[in-house]
Amino acid sequence: MKLAALILALSEVATSQAATRFLGRVNPATRELTWPGTGVCFTFTGTSASIALASVNGANSVDLFIDDGLPEVISNVAGSSIDTSVLSLGEHKVELRHRSEAIFGTIILGDITLNGTFGKSPAPSRQIEVIGDSITVGYGLDGKYPCTNTAAVEDNPLTYAALAAESLEADYNVIAWSGKGIVRNYASSTPDTSPLMPELWTRYGANDADGSYTFPASWDPQAVVINLGTNDFGYLGVRDPLNATVYTDAMVDFVHTIQNHWPDANFFLLTSPMLSDSYPTAADAQKTTQRNALQAAVDQIGNKAHLIDWPTQGPDVGCDYHPNAATHAAEADVLASAIAEVLNW
Ligand SMILES: *[C@@H]1O[C@H](CO)[C@@H](O)[C@H](O)[C@H]1NC(C)=O
Ligand SMILES: *[C@@H]1O[C@H](CO)[C@@H](O)[C@H](O)[C@H]1NC(C)=O
Question: CA–CA separation, 150 vs 161, rounded Å?
Answer without folding.
Answer: 20
